[in-house]
Inverse folding.
């Protein structure tokens, strides 16, 4: 079998045949290749089992400040013994001459029985000719020396002392050829390319991952028999709140929850009959003075329900399955779990046979199609539906139940004033939450960061 | 949603024979979400439409019903008394016209009870009280008050010792110096007269809706309570009173009535109501086939009373359940009593044929074309900032559309163009490899009767060889292959684009967009190191036009 080699590989192999064990640096010199080319060539050859890379560590020793001092003046204990050579000396004299090294050197000398102390005189007793460490000091001197050239016992005495020895650990690589490489004929490798080598990454153009989830959900709704309606993101408070039985003094309508447009009011908000009947329903049930100017204030829709209710009020169908999908807004602090602008889907079923169990059934089917099978329903509260439920779905990764879509049947206080006579089932929720589960994202902001690193690498969900 | 902290052991005492697990399993089916648990303590979230769930007493009542320990309506037993009277002076009519109240005697008040009553009071103030504006409550130590009382007005120089204080203070000082004064003083407006409740010795009992007097403070030594509610309408004030009365009765107090007269005020009735609902409506809405007795037992589990009459159910609702407006609310009460977990979902085949909106279809088709041309889809917020939309790109901001009081500085302006967002995206990706090609379709806004919303389409290409020809080829091919539309370019100038490399995109002699090389100063602003070309067109005026 002939094998194809890159020019770099050939040069490295040739060089190693001349000189079997080399460092990368020496290969650079012998092949005239750049450090990067050598690095890559070695990697390739290693993957093909042609090169063997042995990494080794070695210690290089040199003397520290105190080591150098002892090298020139002698070890402190040597200096002590030298002073005693000429006969016993007074303790105070020795202290004066040796300075702060007197204490430690005296301790060492007494411990080893090199000196004898009587009254205030110190005399020499039985010192060895060469002290531990002196050999090493002499060997290293002012140079650098590999650790394996020094006697470990002799060195150990110095290593314990502060700033005597400086140890540098150096990693070295040695490259050699494997047996396989030794037998390969380089002349075999003419023509063709290395088809097994790694190639650069290319990036696919694609739709946005969140958009993929939106499209998937849209398709599921359509296959469940729902038709899509569109509506504006800017709405009058009338359709966003009043028509949905949210009283004008309700906390949800305050500036701190809802985005109001600065100095922009709607001129026409509904038919005179719609306005009259909605205001009557508010006055009767919530007992306050309904103000048409409040209803004219333009808001960024807080839900897509304003689109569906307007559609129902205009068309009054006896039977319908419709849905509305799009951006909604909340005046919130942006965080890993909250956005000011996100996508919501809402499905509506109108019909005399529409029931809460139906609604639960549609939901169960919807979740099944996005791959969620463990679900349960809990009662909850929404201002414009009664009864109201929320779906809890079990997330295996998080190991807990999390809240997803809400659902309910529109209150008669909502439908009657708008002339809608049949029961209306509504259900829906945020899409980003579902997309987060699908893409395993912990931070919802990632969907709108347009970070190419993520967009280019996120794996499409099936 | 409001959150309340409870203790399992206290709840067990209140409910009766029940295990900790039964409680935690049943809470969600009362509509109460468990937020967190720590040994005996449990924090739960409740819906603002059920203020009776703001105390463990109220939750215990609901739980007893759900578990079948005690079912049926909680009746209020109010002893008629002639010892307690409040007369109302007509001077309050224009400021805070209504007062109502009740006496609660022989109760035991411990620290935990006081804590529960305070949370209830705060939640009532915030919710149905609309931050005390509509109605507000004061709870007092009855034995510190000499009846009869008068609800009247006084000047802002009126002095008394307010709650949590030891010294006499004028009303004006209270409004300026205390937190409650600052928070709620605006309810009283600028009027020189403010509401006040005085006792028979002319001692101040309460300065509604701001603060009580210190002398009537409820402590663990208190045995008898006086509860007053003031407000701007009688029904709301009595609704609030009904919740407090029901909770106090459950906490072991014996209720006695107060006679209230003067200026259109009268004694509270706290009456139960009757609502009729047909069994067929219940079964239709729920998708069940329940008989009358099952419906009645379910309603009783929801702590209501009911009898059947023919095909109808006549339901009796206590005063504190003012969240019940009509028959459909009763359907929900049946569902809760029946148990949501017992409702089996059914899937009936659809009688309708689903359809994607034509606009969505066209946008999806455009997405596919752009991907084919090697462009990656970006998504940006439509609510963005002046910096991104105008400052960085040197665009005209005279027709800016802003929102009020945004909590985020990055989201204050509705976009009138998509391209600036894409430039911003490029600037955040300068460390990623080039070429970088992105597109986005989305809604843009303009001030027009009052706001017009159109769908725009923008694309951008950034790499060392990016040029006008490349981007013109892209827009022409995208529109031609995608929609059979042929556009031309006509020389133009635009502050975002470089002179001499900018054109307007024209369809049948009508400009629908702009194309060109992004001005080098803008590229510098964004610290982008390669040339950038881009375009933006109105789809509403071209592809999506009927």
């Amino acid at each position: 079998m002939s094998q194809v080699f890159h020019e770099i590989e050939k040069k490295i192999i040739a060089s190693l045949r001349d000189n079997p064990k080399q460092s990368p640096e020496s290969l650079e010199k012998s092949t005239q290749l750049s450090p990067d080319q050598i690095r890559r060539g070695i990697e390739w050859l290693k993957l093909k089992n042609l090169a063997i890379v042995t990494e080794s560590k070695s210690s290089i020793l040199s003397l520290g400040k105190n080591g150098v001092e002892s090298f020139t003046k002698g070890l402190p204990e040597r200096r002590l013994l030298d002073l005693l050579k000429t006969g016993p000396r007074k303790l105070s004299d020795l202290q004066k001459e040796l300075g702060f090294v007197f204490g430690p050197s005296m301790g060492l000398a007494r411990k080893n029985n090199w000196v004898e102390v009587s009254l205030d005189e110190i005399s020499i007793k039985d010192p060895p000719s060469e002290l531990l460490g002196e050999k090493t000091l002499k060997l290293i001197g002012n140079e650098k020396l590999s650790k394996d050239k020094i006697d470990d016992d002799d060195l150990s005495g110095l290593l314990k002392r502060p700033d005597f020895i400086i140890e540098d650990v150096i990693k070295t690589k040695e490259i050699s050829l494997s047996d396989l490489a030794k037998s390969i004929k380089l002349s075999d490798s003419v023509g063709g390319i290395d088809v097994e080598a790694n190639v650069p990454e290319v990036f696919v153009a694609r739709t946005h991952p969140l958009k993929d989830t939106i499209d998937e959900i849209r398709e599921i709704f359509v296959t469940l028999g729902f038709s899509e309606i569109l509506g504006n993101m800017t709405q009058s408070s009338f359709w966003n709140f009043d028509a949905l039985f949210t009283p004008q003094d309700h906390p949800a309508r305050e500036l701190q929850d809802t985005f109001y447009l600065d100095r922009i009011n709607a001129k026409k908000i509904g038919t005179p009959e719609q306005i009259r009947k909605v205001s009557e329903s508010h006055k009767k049930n919530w007992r306050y003075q309904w103000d048409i100017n409040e209803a004219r204030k333009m808001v960024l829709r807080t839900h897509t329900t304003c689109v569906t209710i307007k559609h129902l009020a205009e068309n009054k169908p006896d039977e319908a399955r419709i849905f509305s999908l799009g951006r909604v807004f909340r005046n919130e602090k942006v965080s890993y779990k909250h956005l000011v602008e996100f996508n919501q889907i809402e499905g509506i079923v109108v019909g005399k046979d529409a029931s809460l169990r139906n609604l639960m059934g549609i939901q169960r089917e919807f979740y099944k199609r996005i791959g969620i099978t463990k679900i349960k329903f809990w009662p909850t509260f929404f201002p414009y539906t009664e009864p109201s439920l929320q779906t809890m779905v079990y997330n295996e990764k998080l190991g807990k139940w999390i809240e997803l879509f809400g659902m309910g049947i529109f209150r008669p206080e909502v439908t009657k004033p708008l002339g809608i006579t049949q029961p209306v089932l509504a259900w829906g929720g945020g899409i980003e939450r579902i997309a987060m589960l699908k893409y395993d994202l912990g931070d919802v902001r990632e969907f709108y960061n347009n970070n190419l690193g993520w967009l280019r690498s996120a794996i499409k969900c099936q | 949603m409001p959150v309340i902290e409870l203790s399992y052991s206290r709840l067990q005492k209140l409910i009766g024979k029940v295990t900790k697990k039964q409680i935690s399993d049943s809470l969600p089916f009362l509509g109460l979400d468990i937020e967190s648990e720590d040994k005996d303590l449990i924090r739960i979230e409740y819906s603002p439409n059920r203020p009776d769930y703001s105390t463990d007493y109220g939750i215990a009542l609901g739980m007893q019903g759900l578990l079948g320990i005690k079912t049926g309506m909680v009746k209020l037993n109010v002893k008629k008394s002639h010892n307690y009277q409040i007369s109302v002076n007509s001077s309050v009519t224009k400021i805070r016209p209504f007062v109502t109240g009740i006496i609660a005697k022989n109760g035991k008040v411990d620290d935990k009870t006081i804590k529960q009553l305070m949370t209830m009071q705060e939640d009532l103030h915030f919710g149905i009280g609309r931050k005390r504006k509509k109605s507000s409550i004061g709870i007092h130590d009855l034995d510190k008050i000499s009846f009869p009382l008068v609800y009247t007005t006084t000047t802002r120089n009126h002095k008394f010792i307010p709650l949590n204080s030891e010294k006499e203070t004028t009303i004006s000082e209270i409004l300026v110096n205390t937190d409650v004064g600052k928070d709620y003083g605006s309810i009283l407006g600028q009027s020189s007269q403010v509401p006040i409740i005085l006792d028979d010795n002319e001692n101040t009992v309460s300065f509604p809706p701001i603060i009580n007097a210190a002398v009537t403070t409820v402590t663990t030594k208190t045995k008898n309570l006086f509860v007053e509610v003031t407000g701007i309408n009688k029904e709301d004030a009595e609704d609030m009173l009904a919740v407090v009365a029901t909770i106090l009765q459950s906490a072991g107090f014996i209720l006695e009535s107060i006679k209230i007269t003067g200026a259109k005020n009268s004694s509270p009735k706290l009456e139960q109501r009757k609502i009729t609902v047909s069994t067929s409506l219940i079964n239709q809405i729920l998708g069940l086939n329940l008989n009358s007795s099952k419906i009645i037992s379910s309603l009783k589990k929801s702590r209501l009373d009911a009898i059947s009459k023919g095909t109808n159910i006549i339901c009796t609702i206590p005063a504190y359940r003012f969240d019940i407006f009509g028959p459909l609310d009763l359907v929900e009460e049946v569902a809760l009593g029946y148990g949501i977990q017992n409702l089996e979902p059914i899937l009936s085949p659809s009688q309708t044929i689903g359809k994607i909106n034509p606009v969505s279809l066209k946008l999806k088709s455009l997405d596919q074309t752009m991907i084919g041309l090697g462009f990656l889809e970006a998504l940006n917020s439509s609510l963005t900032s002046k910096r991104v939309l105008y400052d960085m790109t040197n665009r005209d901001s005279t027709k800016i559309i802003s929102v009020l009081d945004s909590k985020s500085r990055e989201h204050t302006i509705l976009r009138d163009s998509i391209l600036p967002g894409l430039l911003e995206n490029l600037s955040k990706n300068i460390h990623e490899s080039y070429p970088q090609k992105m597109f986005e379709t989305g809604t843009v806004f303009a001030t027009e009767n009052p706001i017009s919303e159109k769908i725009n389409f923008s694309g951008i290409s950034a790499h060392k060889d990016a040029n006008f020809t490349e981007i013109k080829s892209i827009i022409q091919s995208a529109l031609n292959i995608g929609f059979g539309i042929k556009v031309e370019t006509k020389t133009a100038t635009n502050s975002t684009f470089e002179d001499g490399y900018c054109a307007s995109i024209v369809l049948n002699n009508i400009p629908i967009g702009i194309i060109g090389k992004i001005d080098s100063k803008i590229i510098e602003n964004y610290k982008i190191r390669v040339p950038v070309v881009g375009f933006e067109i109105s789809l509403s005026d071209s592809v999506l036009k009927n």
